[in-house]
Amino acid sequence: MLSRQKLFWLSRVYDLPGSDLRFLRAVRDNCAYHIKHCPEYRLICQAEGFSPKQLKGLEDLEKIPVLPTLFLKRHHVFSMPAWRTPMNVTSSGTSGSFSQVRFDWGCILAEIPMVLRLGFYHKLVSPRPAHYVVLGYKPGKQNKMGVARTMFGLTHFAPPISRTYALRWQKSGYVPDLDGAVKQLKRLEASPFPTRIVGFPSYLWFGMERLQALGLTVRLPRGSKILLAGGWKQHYAQEVDKSRLYALAKRVLGVEEENIHEFFGAVEHPVFFNTCKKHSFHVPAYARIIIRDPRTLAPLPMGQAGLVNLITPLINATPVTSVMTDDLGVLTPGEDCGCGLSAPVLTILGRVGLNDITTCAAGAAQLLGKGEGL
After folding, report:
1. Which residue ranges of the chain lie beneath pLDDT 70?
2. I want to staple 223 with a disulfide (CB 3.0 to 4.6 A). Which of 101, 144, 192, 194 is the partner?
3. What is the pLDDT of residues 330-345, one digit of tens each?
4. What is the pLDDT of residue 177?
5. 272-279: which pairs have CB atoms within 8 A and are 24 or more residues apart?
């Protein structure tokens, strides 16, 4: 499917107007593929009267059937058999269930240039080797979570000298070793090479508090960076404002705000969102976002808050062209950010109540005749 490759090999990573035609063509082909190869998705499209031929302009993207992430956590639907897909990734499953997303070879060959182009744009790629302290899961055969895959991938932007993990696998489960990660940071203070901290923002906060409790401060080598992914998840009640997080990182680790990067994404939408120098998430050319009313699912105008609907034609193996997250967000003009990018800015405001998500997921399930228990 060359339309997908043409989109994801695009070099102008935030040129949405310049990518509109490529994006529309790739989405049209992607929807047609899923309708042909996924019986469940075909039933949903038939029930909603949707055909890829209806996608004549970007304004028609709202017509694509939306699959809520909660639905995907409870119904594992695919457009390719497992033997044709080199990778099967799951969501974190913090709610007790998890999505399964299969990645096809075409997806991987499209994803790699996307990540590299965005990595170069945001000055994450460096030939200079670095030590990595990962405040997250150590990858292994037993772990197929997307966040572990993402964090491991982030350790390749600069050649890794070493990797230290705060969550290690022992026998039948992960064991936290935050003290070990903290001690490693102190040792790396004397290294001639920079350190890159990769991980959950909650673990970064807890680790820095641990350093303070021990009466320690670290001055990481020049060029060190902090790469944050995965959100606060089950620690949402302890979430702190970004300004407090950045100020503590400068005070405790010696890392300036300009060297802190945050990432947004989902297993069901593995497009690389990286904050700009003003710490805003601009929508890259490889995705489009619709904000929808939680009650009616009608698209909302820019500036109004609602459910975040993510759209991308990246994956052929799983019908996740258009997915609804449980995030509440708002789109604002890129020019308002002040960083120089004109692509719209996505701001995540929080998460909506389970009832809103359940309603959306039940609607999709009922179209399949599987409304009971979602």
Report:
1. 1, 92-96, 140-146, 231-238, 352-374
2. 194
3. 999 999 999 999 999 9
4. 81
5. 272/114, 272/115, 272/118, 272/119, 273/346, 274/118, 274/119, 274/122, 274/124, 276/122, 276/337, 276/339, 276/341, 277/339, 278/337, 278/338, 278/339, 279/242
Helix, strand or coil for residue 271? strand
Rounded CA separation 294/357 (Å): 8
- Single-letter residue type at 123: K
Sign of CA dihedral 327, 230, 174, 98: positive
| Chain length of the chain | 374
Question: Quick check: 347 and 281 in contact, CB under 8 A?
Answer: yes
Amino acid at 144: K
Joined tokens for residue 341: 């990018």
92-118 pLDDT tens trace:
655 557 888 999 999 999 999 999 999
Residue 99 CA to residue 268 CA, distance in Å, equals 8
Query: Distance between CA atoms of 167 and 190, rounded to whole angstroms?
Result: 24
* Location of structure tokens 């998500």: 357
Contacts of 83 by beta carbon, 8 Å cutoff, 6+ apart: none
